[in-house]
Amino acid sequence: MVIDQDHIKQLLEEVTDPEIPVISIRDLGILRDVRIENDQIEIIITPTYSGCPAMLEIEKNINNTLKKNDIENFKITTVLSPPWTTDWMSEEGKQKLKEYGIAPPNPSNEEDIQCPNCGSHNTSLVSQFGSTACKSLFKCNDCLEPFDYFKCH
Amino acid sequence: MNQNLFNYTLQQADNCLILGQRLGEWCGHGPVLEQDIAMTNIALDLIGQARMLYQYAAEIQDEKRSEDDLAYLRDAWDFKNVLLVEQPNGDFAKTILRQFLFDSFNCPFYEKLKESSDERLAAIAAKSHKETLYHLKWSGDWVLRLGDGTEESHNRIQNALNELWPYSEEITTPSEADIDANKNGFGVNLNDIKSERETKIREVLNEATLTIPDSAYNHTGGKEGKHTEYLGYILADLQFLQRAYPGNEW
């Protein structure tokens, strides 16, 4: 079996954020690069927020996924620079977030957040800090459901 | 080992760890659920920042010591945090005011530290700065809401201001580590932040209808390891497990 970059990336598609299991670390922009040199594989990841407790879990899952596929000669490197930004989130990732019930980041206007449940723009911020470091809490003034918003970062 | 780089890194790491620990004390005790979550979220960010800095400090020290050793096995006189962050939580108003006085420093500090000649400090600063923008917005909004709120909330945050004001300036008063770091290009010139910070503080306090105390007295000593009695109690809590069961892991 030839181990190439695309193959590794494909395998890592099944590694998701433990807090948001519908979105892969590639969709989130946590997986920065896969480098292969002399059969040695290096997986490069970056944390979303500096205190994000999911990072340890993500490393473990990368480990398990690769080992399950008989890949042993790899190491995981965490880099801080350039700092993670929601701009790295893929369009597909944003769509998946929305379907899951989390409003995706809206860099053009953070005052105008669409309710992921009913689609209304008549929403208001409840708290800048939500269930995880990367989200804030909103409510919809039309369907009255509370929802998480993945804030721009 | 570069002792000054080590001290400089620890100074900020200790600020973040101790304030993070203080905020963590609110977990399950916040006035409303959303604010309970906000305080623990900020605590998480600060402890994350502390970890990045301790990891770096441990590498600089190069004595096979880890970030955990630095957090759990140093005594009070080795901690270099400012006295402000170790002050007790008090009521919600006091916690908010302490947070605002800290955030008004932390946010511009990281913004300037992004230009550090030390690549690692610059990377940590770039990562952390984004987080502190949210912190400052939160604590500033709450100072305004409490100050310009009811008579009760106004009195409470005015009392907090009277109590904490003498602890505000230490953070922009340069220590030996600050001066050396700035001279060698890896640290921030605190004079550059001082006036920007004061303007921001006065602007928010003014709008919140709060009165800045006349007292010009400032408590100092934290950066040199001379702490208030409170730090010992924080460390007793924070370090208990590693002291009683050395090397224990989850």
Provide the fold topology.
The complex is a heterodimer of chains A (153) and B (250).
Chain A: H1 5-12, E1 16-17, E2 20-24, H2 25-28, E3 31-37, E4 40-45, H3 54-68, E5 74-78, H4 91-100, E6 102-103, E7 123-127, E8 135-140, E9 146-150
Parallel strand pairs in A: 4-5, 6-9
Antiparallel strand pairs in A: 1-2, 3-4, 7-8, 8-9
Chain B: H1 3-24, H2 33-61, H3 67-72, H4 83-86, H5 92-113, H6 119-147, H7 151-164, H8 176-183, H9 190-207, H10 230-244
Strand order of the largest sheet of chain A: 6-9-8-7
In whole angstroms, the N-to-C terminal distance of chain B is 31 Å
> Low-confidence parts of chain A, pLDDT < 50 over ≥5 residues?
none
What's the pLDDT, averaged over the residues of chain B? 96
User: From N to C, what is the helix and strand string of chain B?
Assistant: HHHHHHHHHH
Mean pLDDT, all residues of chain A: 93
Q: In summary, what is this structure?
A:
The complex is a heterodimer of chains A (153) and B (250). With 153 residues, chain A is of the alpha/beta class.
Descriptive report:
The complex is a heterodimer of chains A (153) and B (250). A four-stranded mixed β-sheet of chain A has the order 6-9-8-7. Chain A has a three-stranded mixed β-sheet with strand order 3-4-5. Chain A has a two-stranded antiparallel sheet with strand order 1-2. Chain A has helices spanning 5-12, 25-28, 54-68, 91-100, and strands at 16-17, 20-24, 31-37, 40-45, 74-78, 102-103, 123-127, 135-140, 146-150. The N and C termini of chain A lie far apart (40 Å). Chain A is of the alpha/beta class and 153 residues long. Chain A has two domains: 5-84, Fe-S cluster assembly (FSCA) (GMP Synthetase, Chain A, domain 3), CATH 3.30.300; 88-150, no CATH class. Chain B is mainly α. Chain B has a single domain, classed as Ferritin, CATH 1.20.1260. In chain B, 67% of the residues lie in helices and 0% in strands. Chain B contains ten helices and no strands. Chain B has helices at residues 3-24, 33-61, 67-72, 83-86, 92-113, 119-147, 151-164, 176-183, 190-207, 230-244. In chain B, α2 packs antiparallel against α6. Chain B starts with a helix and ends in a 6-residue tail after the last helix. At the A-B interface, loops of A face α2 and α6 of B.
